[in-house]
Write a structure and sequence with these properties.
This protein is an alpha+beta fold and 86 residues long. It has one domain. Helix content is 13%, strand content 29%. It has a three-stranded antiparallel sheet, with no helix packed on it. A hairpin with a 2-residue loop joins strand 2 and strand 3. The longest helix is centred in the first third of the chain and has 11 residues.
């Protein structure tokens, strides 16, 4: 069973009918790799996650829990995956 939103995208131009994606593409294309400007009154917080934990419920009640945490190996940041349950 597949969802109607789970379709293959063959070319970028086919995304232009989708509002959120087309707006994002239009906004980001003009800036290349530079920062996108924002109004001076916009504030915010920078979140730096130390780990991610995902939980997936199962009908059998043997729920699947995975924890991803960053570790440095040979100078590269890689994600260590640990199964917490079952």
């Amino acid at each position: 069973m597949s969802l109607t939103k789970s379709i293959k995208i063959w070319k970028r131009s086919s995304l232009m009918g989708s509002y959120p994606i087309s707006v994002f593409i239009l906004l980001t294309d003009g800036f290349g790799k530079s920062l996108i400007p924002k109004p001076k009154n916009w504030g915010g917080y920078k979140l730096t996650p130390k780990l991610f934990e995902f939980w997936q419920g199962q009908k059998s009640r043997l729920h699947d829990r995975l924890r991803y945490s960053p570790h440095e190996i040979n100078g590269q940041l890689v994600w260590k995956v640990e199964r917490l349950a079952p």
